[in-house]
Records
---
Amino acid sequence: MTVTVQTGGRLRHAVAGRGGSAAGGARGAAHEARHGRLLDIAARIGFAGRGLVYVLIGVLAVQVALGQSNARTNRSGALGEIRDKPFGSVVLAILIVGFLGYALWRLLDAAVGSQGESNQAKRTGKRLVSAGRGVVYLAIAGSTINFLVSGGGGSGEPAPWTARVMRNDAGRFLVGAVGLVVVGIGIGMIIRGLKRKFEEKLKTGEMGAFSRKIAKPAGMVGYAVRGIVFGLAGVFVTKAAIEFDPKEAKGLDGTLKTLAGQAYGQWLLTLCAVGLALFGVYSFFEARYRRL
């Protein structure tokens, strides 16, 4: 009887050991992939792609502010601008590779966790944020693929899906919760910009004096303005839930054009356009100097 118990104990220990070894091997493979050269390049293309999109959104917003265009001042509008240029389809394909690479890097980061963070709660929080960003960029890559294949895209505004979700009270509360989360994300961006927390992720020691002079103010202004626009978009989505009116929900394009319709709207939209373009400029520096 004693031998059986001990043998069973050893057997259970061996099985657990094999299970732990397998899990450890999977984590090791994920960690190795996360720091692989190809994924590093793809993720940096993703940062550069984000930069290009935001610079174009800023340019489109300035044109709208000056009355020269009524184009969509969001990602769909920016992708349209790229598509209509020579070799635009090639650029879109490169953007897709970058967005997918960035998404995969984020998802692997969520799987592995931040090795430099000893606080378990903070580490878990960072993993959840990475997972969320990974999913978002998978969706962005998917929408870009659809844009490239179909030759066009949707409006990029949240009103249609808001109407579908808000068919009952449960959906209404879900939309309201999403709006509040977006407001929180916007506030977080503003804080990140004003406190220059984005510098923690940059290899500032490798940056020259000129790069530092451009990247830091571009990051501060860019994050702050992006946060304001995101926060306002979240307010509109929350308002849609409170008033049970999906048409109140607005995305980036709707938010910017709502600003344009206010007193001094031309100036407000121009300032936002400059800020979003600066975030795009900062993203180019992040593509080069971001710690991955």
---
Amino acid sequence: MEGTQQVIDLGDKAEYTLGRLDEASRSYPDIDLNPYNAVEAGVSRRHAKITRVGDDRFYIMDLSSTNYTHVNGEKLEPFEPKVLDEGDDIHLGTMKLIFHQ
């Protein structure tokens, strides 16, 4: 669905894995991106993790994904946390997400 936007609420947990649910490989991410054409976008089964610290600080970390995680055009090194700010562009493979607190 080109040009559509969906809101994915992170809720109150401290940590969320983003990826693709795949029962065959027993991959159960906290946020399943399959409904948003994750396979076609190159999203890994366990692609990235968003961590909340306190009430207003968020970090994203690439989980050694096949097609990388980028924040505002910067490729993240695997397992190196990056602070997220309001309006940051996140790419998981070619899937674009916009971070809002």
